[in-house]
Amino acid sequence: MLKKNIWKLLILTSSLFSIPTYNNENSQNTEYTFAMIKPDAIYAKNTGPIISLIEQNGFVIICMQKVRFARKSAELFYGEHQGKSFFEKLINYITSGPIIIMVLAKKDAIKDWRMLMGPTDSTKAQEGTIRYLFGTDVTENAVHGSDSPESAKREIGLFFPDLIRLHNNL
């Protein structure tokens, strides 16, 4: 157990130090966003192609981890949807299996990630977007991304609080 925890700490520590060094000359223009690969894409074994699309579109993956939402955490994460008719379905779905969470970096990362994802409703997604390629509907739409700098900071902070503490421009 101790070895496993030390290994996790080493991985987390090494990913923290990669942020300021991966692209020093453009660090002022770098924006960070939160990204998630959802259970439907993981079950369908689409993780690799999605990560490839992320990298092919110029994003730098700062950190990445495979986790599973506890119900309380999912309710906190999707808190702005509480009380809406789809909330319970969303929580049941997102807690149904593992997710992959990431922090992505790029100039205009939030806007560019949202464009690459496509609209929430996969049936309305444009050809070439992740949701067109891998989503099936409005809930099982393969990926999630922050919609604003405030959301990105909040979502990154829920999963990677040390990144927020150590880097003021996140």
Compile the SSE list and pairings.
Blueprint: H1 2-21, E1 31-37, H2 39-43, H3 47-56, E2 60-67, H4 71-77, H5 87-94, E3 99-106, H6 109-117, H7 130-134, E4 143-145, H8 149-159, H9 161-166
Description:
This protein has 170 residues and is of the alpha+beta class. It has one domain (2-166): Alpha-Beta Plaits, CATH 3.30.70. 48% of the residues lie in helices and 15% in strands. It has a four-stranded antiparallel sheet. It has helices spanning 2-21, 39-43, 47-56, 71-77, 87-94, 109-117, 130-134, 149-159, 161-166, and strands spanning 31-37, 60-67, 99-106, 143-145.
TL;DR?
The chain has helices spanning 2-21, 39-43, 47-56, 71-77, 87-94, 109-117, 130-134, 149-159, 161-166; strands at residues 31-37, 60-67, 99-106, 143-145. The chain has 170 residues and is an alpha+beta fold.
Our count of domains comes out at 1
- CATH class categorisation: Alpha Beta
Strand arrangement within the widest β-sheet reads 2-3-1-4
Q: Helix proportion of residues, in percent?
A: 40-55%
CATH-derived topology: Alpha-Beta Plaits
- Which class do the helix and strand fractions yield? alpha+beta
Total number of helices: 9
Distance between the termini: 32 Å
Task: Return the CATH architecture.
Answer: 2-Layer Sandwich
Rg measurement, Å: 16 Å
Largest β sheet strand count, sense and barrel closure: 4 strands, antiparallel
User: What is the succession of H and E elements?
Assistant: HEHHEHHEHHEHH
Instruction: Give average pLDDT, whole number.
Output: 86
Q: What shape does the CA trace take?
A: globular
Strand content: 15-25%
The CATH homology group name: Nucleoside diphosphate kinase-like domain
According to DSSP, the number of beta strands is 4
Q: List the uncertain runs.
A: 5-25
